[in-house]
Amino acid sequence: MPGLVPGDSGFMDDIEDSFQELSNSSHQRYNILCSGDKDGSICFNIFGIFPIGTVNIHNLVVSSSLSSSNAASRLLNASICKVALSKDLCHLVVLCNGELITDEVEQGEGQHGLLGLHCLVLNTSIFSKRKTELHQVAQQASNIEDLSEVVRTSLSVMSKIWSDAVHTFHEKFNTVSTLIIDHGLDSTPQDEFLSLLGGARASPPLHQFLENSLGEAGLKRVAKAVNGAGKELQLIVLDHLQPAAEIIGFRIGELRGLSKWRARYKGIGLDEKLMDNATERAGMLLVQVERFMRVLASVVQQFSNFFSWLLKSVKILMAEPSDQLPFNSELVIIFLKFLYDQDPVRQLLEISEGDSSVEVDLETMQRIKQLAHFGGFSDLEYLKRTLAEEFQQMESCFNDAFEMPFSTISGKLLCEDLLPLFPIASSSKLKPYKVPASVSYNEDILHESSESEIHQQALTGYISFKLPDDCFSIANCIGIVRGLTHDLGKLEGISDPVEAALLCIPDGYHCIDLSLYKEGQIVLLLDETVTTSESSGNAYMMILQASDLPFVSLSKSNTLNSWKLHELQDSAIYLQLESEKARSIPHSVVPPLAVSASRGVACVFAARKRALVYILDEDEDEVSDIE
């Protein structure tokens, strides 16, 4: 039926998925970035920014298709060297060095597991099977994170602007308290201003403050700073904060709607209850923004009214005309009582300290309780929080909601296969082991039958690496393995054989790096083993066709206690520079080798700080040197 995908319980229909009609998102931009570290952790990020899963290879139970035993194995002290995700997102190849321990084999004293370089294949088909759902969730969640950053930055900028303006006000008006103390009076600045407002004569300290310390010019500067800050805050809210908060509410509302489609989205961890909670928090943030705008407008108005009255008082003291300066006496009283030494705007922009909260009158709280019965917010205490605190709680709810898909997907990333490649010295056990290696996937066209034109594409994984000289009886070799990644579309129990080939580098040269190229080609970067001071050295870039190599199927065994590539020593192929497609490089080269299949070029670095760019698809030696 429409709406079901593989992995859901139900019948599948061949008609076009109805969800495709509901989704406006394009899958062309759907991509996943995977990265591994020396501690064995692999992280997956959709679009490269939204974390969708993680796995640690130390916690994986591994098994091999080349072992007939059902015993589980584990990796100890493993460090990741390279990871490569297939184009169809179904497989992840991991090259790592560590010690392979089999559970059923008891490790006696002095005995160890297989210490060396291993290749793991992880089943990541969840990224392909659920790409529609993951793309939709990641797109909305990434947008919410970007908008949250807009809100966070807006709050920070607003707090800084308003704090500077209020600091200017208090820096000037704190002089009143100092003058009162100097004159030996027992009163407060508010008392002195109220006395002046009531018609009394200005006291000596207040007269000195208005005439000398403040003056008309100083008062206008303070008024300009506060009023200007108020206008800037209003613009930031209208142009940035409020639109971002509204779009966040819209985006999280879309995710809430998707979470109700349990058949599709519960399987990737989109939890309906967590989304309901996040949606409510987004609504609370919008209410907080609206309240902040009202508080800001009221505070700026009262500041402006106070400055108008004070300017008129200064003009009266200076015996200047003051008829064109109207003010409201009641607002002046309210300002002196509630705003002169308090700052409700700054309070809303900051996190409350301790158990302090925003005061809410009983009538408003009663209305909130009544609204809760008609589908309002279930959290009745939200108005007691500041705007900054509400944003913090909203972010926390978002993190909880998006943590569920992360943990759900992480639990579905399992090890599908393992192949021990070659041993390494025990001295390298505690440090990362670097080896030239490359992982790539080649598209093969598989025909259903010899007479049918129906065909499908399958990806064959190629893993190439340089073998240490001391691990086999023959030295200076390169190993190539293919078939380790299995086609998930095939019937259970049917898979391609795991094959490998062993290549010996020509005498006088050693492989410093390698890379897999398009159409199953392998590019080797060879450098002379001995160079003289008279010459700049010599190197070769050799291109091999993987399909032409005599691959040998690796045999199965009862346990994973041996290195399979040892079987290939008798069938090793000796490469010859004259018989292979090789390009001479008149310089000694150093790693890395960079190859671009889409552009058909390779870049190598000479030992003398030069970058050499070669066109791989042409026979001419077209080289671009960059100092």
Automatic annotation (TrEMBL):
Q: Which GO terms describe its cellular component?
A: anaphase-promoting complex; nuclear periphery
Organism domain of life:
Eukaryota
Query: Which UniProt keywords are present, listed alphabetically?
Result: Cell cycle, Cell division, Mitosis, Ubl conjugation pathway
The keyword Cell division is assigned to this record: yes
UniProt-listed GO biological process terms: anaphase-promoting complex-dependent catabolic process; cell division; protein K11-linked ubiquitination
Q: Which residues form the Anaphase-promoting complex subunit 4 long domain?
A: 118-319
Concerning Pfam families, the annotation shows: ANAPC4
Q: What name has this protein been given in UniProt? A: Anaphase-promoting complex subunit 4
